Amino acid sequence: MTHAFDSTILRDYDIRGIVGQTLSAIDARHVGLAFGTKVRRAGGRVVCVGWDGRLSSPELVAALVEGLTGTGCDVRRIGCGPSPMLYFAAKLREADGAVMVTGSHNPADHNGFKLVLGDQPFFGPDIADLARLAAAGDFERGEGKVIDDTVTDEYVRQLADGYDGKRALTVAWDCGNGATGEVLAELVRELPGRHIVLFGVVDGRFPNHHPDPCEARNLRHLRDAVQFERADLGIAFDGDGDRIGVIDNEGGIVSADQLLVILAEDVLKDHPGAPIIADVKASKVVFDEIARMGGQPVMGRAGHSPIKALTAQLKAPLAGETSGHVFFADRWYGFDDALYAAVRLLGLVARWDRETLARRRERLPRLVTTPEMRFACGEDRKFQVVAEVKSRLDVAGATVNAIDGVRVDTADGWWLLRASNTQGALVARCEGASVDGLKRLRAALTAQLAASGIAAPLS
Ligand SMILES: [Zn+2]
């Protein structure tokens, strides 16, 4: 029994496709068979399974569980909830693996799988390995058991225990009808203060707005609620609760970079000199501020899986990723959990006497940046272009960090060029101290791209 996945669904950090087009229940069963085989061959047996509120999730879960048990794995069905609750369940139950069925922040007809084997995120070559096992029909055989096993009460209790604020806050929340709704309803009952929850009903059609807090337009309702309720802050979650968006008390968006600095200041009080990780796309402000506050700034490869792996490797108490994944290993488990990050932020804000989130944000240094720019470039060529740019820069004696693409420091600031993880494109960003400096950075980037035959940006 062999199976070929649609090649577009095997991504760097997860498996994700469009249900009925590139992703079906047959794929889900083979993910179960192949992943179960990996668990069994690593000496394990117990796999926790969770899912988000998408309409296609129950069918995919049923097929996934059939595949897993067919390899002899015992499955604990954790239920519908955020991805971090599944990761929490896997820790609590000392499971050998975990699979989350989720389309994260993507449109309603998308769905997919996030995988954890042992204590490690499962990505890159691990995902390619699943495809190899499926193509060869090389599966373990057995008959596993299935039990329903909710951990919601325990998860909410531990989240609420993490709150360390002094005064009661007014907080607006936006679940975007994603998988965080039910857990959040229980959590706000445990927290002091006044809580206004928008779109807390889990609805896989996402009738109000797209559950992606990276996009400013998805934060509109939350900003209005913060201003109308005169709230201390607003918190938004993506569809599966592993990414956070934050609105300050005046309705301004707190970027993921700014949030990381604000959280780092607090964490570094208990862990002076500790490594704090941000990804290669992050603002220079993040690294400079962490160093200024006595931390050890570390730049990691882009993407939540590499950042999670690096967090564990360096035993960093805190890490953040530009799209809003926040990883706390300080008093938490080191996985990306937007609910826990929210509780810690609330605690921090509620310990300030005269500070507000808007004022704290305004005190951060301001640089000028371009948005993320994309340049069309064939899959077969994109890594080559980055290599060409790097070798020309090396010859020129430029200051280059090549951890992921090229990040070039100049007197004006920096620019970054990477091969996209998800499409035939190059991705770039520049950040400078002044508008003129930014122009020079952009010109340097454009010249390098032109020298490799890459023309104007896609967007
Ligand atoms: Zn997500």
Can you describe this structure?
- Helices cover 37% and strands 22% of the residues.
- It is an alpha/beta fold and 459 residues long.
- Strands 1, 2, 3, 4, 5, 6 and 7 form a 7-stranded mixed beta sheet that branches. Strands 17, 18, 19, 20, 21 and 22 form a 6-stranded antiparallel beta sheet that branches. Strands 9-8-10-11-12 form a 5-stranded mixed beta sheet, with helices on both faces.
- Helix 1 (25-41) crosses helix 4.
- The chain starts with 14 loop residues before the first strand and ends in an 8-residue tail after the last helix.
- Bound molecules: zinc ion (ZN).
- The site of zinc ion has 6 residues, from loops.
List keywords for this structure.
459 residues; 6-stranded antiparallel sheet; 22 strands; globular; binds zinc ion
> Which class of secondary structure composition applies to the elements?
alpha/beta
Unreliably modeled segments: none
Helix count from the secondary structure assignment: 14
Strand segment tally: 22
Shape: globular
